[in-house]
Amino acid sequence: MAWRETADPYRIWVSEIMLQQTRVETVGPYYERFLARFPDVRSLADARPDDVMKAWEGLGYYARARNLQRAARIVVERHGGRIPRTVEDLSGLPGIGRSTGGAIAAIAFGADSPVLDANARRVVARLFGVGGDPRTATVREILWELSARMVARGKGRDTALAVMDLGATVCLPRAPRCAECPVRPSCAAFRAGSQDAIPPRTARKSFPHHDVVAALIRRPDGSLLLLRRPPKGLLGGLWSFPSARRQPGESLEGALRRALREKLHVQATIQRKVGAVPHAYSHYRITLHGYLCVTGGRGTPPGERVGWMRAGRGTRYALPRADRKLLELIAREERS
Ligand code: SF4
Q: Is residue 162 domain-shared with residue 56, that is, in the same domain?
């Protein structure tokens, strides 16, 4: 993992934010692309938010990108462009909590600060045989204390990297690779044979499913209408096709007409269904149904939130993955 070898605090910060909810294997290419586009904190602070979202496109959990840029601006304004060195100052920045702050302070500045990201939580719980649910405040505090105890004086960076990497590559959530684990002799869970029970498995949730309809409104020149989503919330700041969740008892086309009426104030004719794509978010799943529409020229879309793009061409707009899948369906149609 090349970024683990960097000593650049900015790069370490970006990598830790990307790794917050995403696996190392996924993050790699995004990290390289993002750093090529925004090589330092000032370039990120000065960037257009749309460009930041575009560089983050596909990585998900977009609040991370918004917070990263907000934090970059604070770093430039209040810290002269230098990433703060202490957990306290780092944790005051948007998107940085106690664990990410601890990881940045340790890895970038060698602070003897403990870390407790999801991987570290699992490693510490197993090493010390802490069997409770790490999502509860009590168990979490115990794990913080144990994690702090593990930091060898003056070895904060090595400890943080070792614990996090052990969790990412050896002490896996399912089927930990104990046979090749360097800390096996001192692992309480291994001795007790309780690796699979720590941390305790939570019952698999069943995620609700929603049908969502999207209007692919095409102009005569072939370009498609996009709306910018509100800056906060799920997929905030991205661009997407006008859409609506189908309500109980409503037909897909009924939901589509409602979306056109309520969101765009335009009269549009539904031409045909282009296709449907499944997509999973963290707490629910959707099937996104795309309908090609043409406007009858009446009504006015709210101007400042509107963009037009061509299917099959590179675009400056950052789109959610599900919308991009629909776009690919149209591009494929146009090629065939
Ligand atoms: S011995 Fe097994 S359970 Fe213990 S830390 Fe190593 S991989 Fe994890």
A: yes
Answer whether 309's CB lies under 8 Å from 216's CB: no
User: Which structural domain range is residue 225 located in?
Assistant: 209-335
pLDDT of residue 259: 84
Query: What CATH code is carried by the domain that includes residue 227?
Result: 3.90.79.10
Active site residue 16: yes
Work out which ligand 1 atom sits closest to the CA atom of 176.
Answer: 7
Which atom of ligand 1 lies nearest, measured to the CA of 178?
2
pLDDT in tens, 89-104: 999 999 999 999 999 9
Answering whether pTM is above 0.90, one says: no
User: Does 126 sit in the ligand 1 pocket, CB within 6 Å?
Assistant: yes
Identify whether residues 192 and 263 lie together within a single domain. Answer: no
267-to-52, 172, 220, 292, 296 alpha-carbon distances in Å: 34, 54, 16, 14, 6
> Strand 285-295 to strand 209-217: parallel, antiparallel, or no bridges (unpaired)?
parallel
From the CB of 187, is ligand 1 less than 6 Å away? Answer: yes
Q: Which of 124, 147, 171, 194 to mutate to test the pocket of ligand 1 (most atoms within 8 A of CB)?
A: 171
